[in-house]
Amino acid sequence: MNLHSRILVPLLAIAALGAVYAPSAEARAWVGVSVGIAPPAPRHERVIVRRGYVRAPGYWRWAPHFQRYVWRPGYWMRARPGWRWVAPHWIPRGSHWVFRAGYWTRLGHVRP
Question: Which helix (H) or strand (E) holds 60?
Fold first, then answer.
């Protein structure tokens, strides 16, 4: 085996292993909406329980092009055993209201 093969073969093996092994990655992006006007009271939605599904309730969404809140009706999602759905909501922060999108969280897990 010449010097060229002794260097090239291990390098190719390392490159092949690098291509096979790819650690899983998770990316999250939070887009914040801050509004100086309090959202209206939530609308009442009549809901009938559906086995195997979770209801994401409706909420007020800020529509910047209209400069007002717009109602987003609720919808059904498949239930995730061991998880619970936290509905979208507005949080008062000083003189503004900040929107927190809905998300799944493990049962018993408290998110800050």
Answer: strand 59-63
Residue-level pLDDT, tens digit, the chain, 112 residues: 565 566 656 655 565 554 444 443 334 444 567 888 999 999 998 888 899 999 999 999 999 998 999 999 999 999 999 999 999 999 999 999 999 999 999 987 666 5
What is the identity of the amino acid at 102?
G
Which of 49, 57, 50 is closest to 73 using CA atoms? 57
Q: Residue 11: which H helix or E strand, with range?
A: helix 3-20
Structure tokens at 69: 């809140």
Q: Which amino acid is at 69?
A: Y
Residue found by looking up tokens 């073969």 in the block: 9
User: Is the pTM higher than 0.85?
Assistant: no
* Helix/strand/coil for 68: strand
Residue type, 99: F
Distance CA 106, CA 112 (A): 13
